[in-house]
Design goal:
The chain is of the alpha/beta class and 448 residues long. Among the domains are: 60-192, Rossmann fold; 210-367, Rossmann fold, CATH 3.40.50.720. The protein is 48% helix and 15% strand. The protein has helices at residues 2-18, 23-33, 37-42, 45-48, 51-55, 104-121, 141-155, 174-188, 209-226, 244-255, 278-287, 295-298, 329-337, 353-361, 369-372, 375-389, 395-419, 426-445; strands at residues 60-69, 75-86, 92-98, 127-132, 164-168, 236-239, 259-265, 268-271, 303-306, 317-319, 342-344, 365-367. A seven-stranded mixed sheet has the order 9-8-7-6-10-11-12, sandwiched between helices. The longest helix is centred in the C-terminal third of the chain and has 25 residues, at 395-419.
Amino acid sequence: MKVVNERLEKIFAHVVKHNFGELEFHQAVKEVIETLGPVLHKHPEYMDQKIIERICEPERQIIFRVPWQDDRGEVQINRGFRVGFNSTLGPYKGGLRFHPSVHLGTIKFLGFEQTFKNALSGMPIGGAKGGADFDPKGKSDSEVMRFCQSFMTELYRHIGEFTDVPAGDIGVGAREIGYLFGQYKRITNRYESGVLTGKSPLWGGALVRREATGYGAVYFAQEMLKVRGDSLEGKTCVVSGSGNVAIYAIEKLQMLGSTVVACSDSNGFISDPKGLNLDTIKQLKEIDRARISTYIKYHPQATYVEAGNIWDVPCDLAFPCATQNELDATSAATLVSNGCKAVIEGANMPVTPDGAKIFIDAGVAFAPGKAANAGGVATSALEMQQNASRDTWTFEHTEKRLQVIMQNIHNNCYQTAAEYDSPGNYVIGANVVGFKRVADAMIAFGVI
């Protein structure tokens, strides 16, 4: 094991040196390779063929200029990205994120995580991520359309249903996917439904895709509690964020008997001990595109805390569904002291490494995002299946398939953690399962 650990330290040092300043990417790589020592000791062929070194280097990185005109006629310029990390298990698959914080390191960390997440799903898809430092907030529909058209004018040459299939992420919802698909169709003169997922069910999208990430995280939580002889019934939950993932996590939690007492946006959070009104949240966020603070105008019994920390709200279950590194060690300690039983990552890497360690050391069930939020990309793969067969499935059929996928992900992670002498450690279970699936296929393909 000493030789293995020394090798892993050298690999990580190389990643840091050759990806200077990309701290989120460093964090994602470190979180994975720290858990792989026992796997490499048991399977030295992974070291002999430098599988980890190859996985840590993206297969392709594309950066491009996105010029567009705003409503005043002024030219604006953004930067677009698409990083194809690993296509061993299938075509590149991963979302597009439009947010001013986006840079190459963000996209690489997300693409790296996506590789293992997609492998965990059991679906035939590789890992990728993309996006731009464009902020759709405050922009008119016309401005968003012009940006999306310019973005796709460059991206279209790099994607395709057998090559790379983008989807939505933060800042990219049904509106943006529609504009992107329309431009792709216009340029290529093809109605290639499978080139993008997250489409409207009216024109090739899958039912349940909008709900899938949030629903899937709750299904994973349900399985976590089940193996502990517990259930979601009667649990008090806190869900950070108020975007797509958070909204549908709240919806499924309420359907399964839990009470969600708080959610948030980038300005602050709302709380209501009797439970949040989901219809109001959907109206504010999906239709009005308003701030979460507006909620208290309709429900004055609720409390709004500007720039507050949502993790100060006591709960049984915590679902960080906003963005990366939103839940740090201090917040983790607060949740533990308040009696939190489980933490389920709905976003990508929302808990810092120190925070995750506090949960694991305290015996709090902790589900990493690459396992718990895999429902979104799994349902995207189901959408690809429907597009390929020119078929449509019912909501009930698709949701049942999602539930089975999440159950399988949970069981594989749970059993693998036990196999590697770390019972109940979903971080180790998820990393080992995802890594082995990708690594075995890479060995089968040879050195490419």
